[in-house]
Amino acid sequence: MNCLDFQGLEAIVNWRKFQIFPWVTALALVLSTVLTACALPQVNAQERIFLGLSVEFLDEYELPKRPFQDTPVGGLSGITYDRQRDRFYVISDDRGHYAPARFYTLKLNLDSNSSDPPKIASVDIESVTFLKGEDGNPYPIGEIDAEGIAFASPNSVYIASEGIARKGLAPFIHEINLETGQFVRDITLPKRYIPDTAENQTQGIQDNFGLESLTLNPRGFGDATVDPYRLFTATEAPLVQDLDELDAELPPKNRLLHYLISDGPPILISENLYTLDESIRWSLYKGLPELLALEQGGHLLSLERHFGFLGFGAKLFEIQTGSATDTSRIASLKGELKKVEPIKKRLLLNLQDLGIELDNLEGMTLGPRFSDGSQSLILISDDNFNPDQVNQILLFRLKL
């Protein structure tokens, strides 16, 4: 029965409800409730799954390529925000060839007090922190490829090393002391992510396509011993054992990891299938360089990046993990997976529509709130230490 049928029935009941039986009055109340529901706006399934986010582009800024404390400022592959200190921490993917593995502390000065849209007035590099391994020494040259960084209050950052498959070097995630750069602990990765051999590889991350993304849920601002938080990372491209080399029509299948971080050993909660955008054609490569957890549980932003004959491109998606199948016990994701529900995703923005020349965007974080209370979103590019590329910072407003 549709709403119009109910409306006709309600008219009959209202006319006779006091003339027939007392129970008809109760029926009239039920029908009124149904009619009230009919009057509510109808919401489709996708609107119920996603948050209804949108983004507004505000500004572009180019960080000058000036040396800082005898280090070249470049290779900026990940960014994270420390709300208490109002500072950004930016990881360099220098493998130690130009200077030891490191992250920089930045202060973004926003011009957001006028009636015009907020802009980036300037960016100050305040310090550089060198990373140290479990032995207390800087990571050996060529044995770390730091791509992701995530701040954990009060005094830690997590870093993700992509791994170097051609050298048989595994990816890793380490917790690092914010002030000293000293190793704190390791986040154990499943064995299926570890390259089994440098040659004729049959499992693990692909070379230069390992772990780039890293994010903590925004509620993880307190001490993990009191307030456990969630950590997310994903492969930039499929694991070797998941490659559909014989079927180019199937979308690339990445894996996303979800950990619970507390005062005990980190716990792997789940692993889910993330399929890369299929609409990108004629690209030389494409991948998933960044994730950003949102305060609403199970909701994240994802940044997909590609490069082709026309240069760099990127797309921003809203993703939802709640209904995705746990793939942690699936040895290979090859072929068509009819019984595996992937992470749901919705395109928020094709950055090529902004009308600006994009560089190699790899990092993303929430930033400070603007003077009107709205939320800022910042993206940053990796210039690959190439003089023809730039350290590009993009400023957006994230709207809900």
UniProtKB/TrEMBL annotation:
Keyword Transmembrane applies: yes
Transmembrane segments: 20-40
Keywords: Membrane, Transmembrane, Transmembrane helix
Positions of the Phytase-like domain: 71-385
InterPro entries: Phytase-like_dom
Keyword field contains Transmembrane helix: yes
Protein name: Esterase-like activity of phytase family protein
Species in which this protein is naturally found: Laspinema palackyanum D2a
